Amino acid sequence: MANLDFRFDDYTEKFSSKMLAELRSYALEHPFEGPVSIEIGANRGKFLTELAERHPEKTYLGIEIRRSFAGISHRRLKRHGCSNADCIHADANLAIPILFDDGQIDEFFLLYPDPWWKSRHHKRRIIQESFLDLMERKMPKGGKVWIRTDVGPLADEMRDTLILHDAFEPIDVSDYPQEPLPWTNREQHCFEAGIPAHLVYFERV
Ligand SMILES: C[S@@+](CC[C@H](N)C(=O)[O-])C[C@H]1O[C@@H](n2cnc3c(N)ncnc32)[C@H](O)[C@@H]1O
């Protein structure tokens, strides 16, 4: 079978320069002031919209790598009158360094991330040491990381990576049951299919 890795990387190079230009324009047009909660992989924006409606006093940004979903989320937020929230089309790895000052992200949601099952694709998983170094810089002490997934081995791997990092400590999940946060589309599906959720909740220390 053909090895598509090179072609994929070649494609991402071109894709990234366009995305970086879009991100720089967005940063100039929409500078964030004060703390921001971000959701990586907002998909169609169900979770983000419900949370932004509940907390009009807070600022939310969804980051979604698929352009069509980012557009759907953006329009959903506008339709619901959420002037405190937006969703952009970007790779979170590129967007976070450009859009935020150090210590500005006080909450970070990663809900039902893509598992990237094949080992040669593991590098595309969000929770990696280098990304946690970035989060350490961009989050204040006391900032929260809320991760949920239906993939047990992925939850274990993310938990292990976070535990090994000096800047993050686990939060006791019994203090944070599932109900207070809205459900994502994937979560709703899992609940209806009887698939359990794994909670990976950490605090920036
Ligand atoms: C499995 S879906 C889950 C979507 C939603 N959070 C839910 O629970 O229904 C994962 C989402 O993350 C997005 N995604 C994957 N990698 C990303 C990245 N590096 N930056 C931003 N979004 C990403 C995908 O396009 C997809 O919409």
Compact overview of the structure:
It catalyses: guanosine(46) in tRNA + S-adenosyl-L-methionine = N(7)-methylguanosine(46) in tRNA + S-adenosyl-L-homocysteine. This is tRNA (guanine-N(7)-)-methyltransferase. This protein is of the alpha/beta class and about 200 residues long.
Notes on the structure:
- The chain has 205 residues and is α/β, with parallel strands linked by helices.
- It has a seven-stranded mixed beta sheet, sandwiched between helices.
- The mean pLDDT is 91.
- It contains seven helices and seven strands.
- The radius of gyration is 17 Å and the shape is globular.
- Helix 1 (5-29) packs parallel to helix 4 (92-99).
- The longest helix is centred in the N-terminal third of the chain and has 25 residues, at 5-29.
- It has one domain: 3-Layer(aba) Sandwich (Rossmann fold).
- The structure holds S-adenosylmethionine.
- S-adenosylmethionine binds at residues 40-41, 43, 63-66, 69, 91-93, 111-114, 126, 184-187.
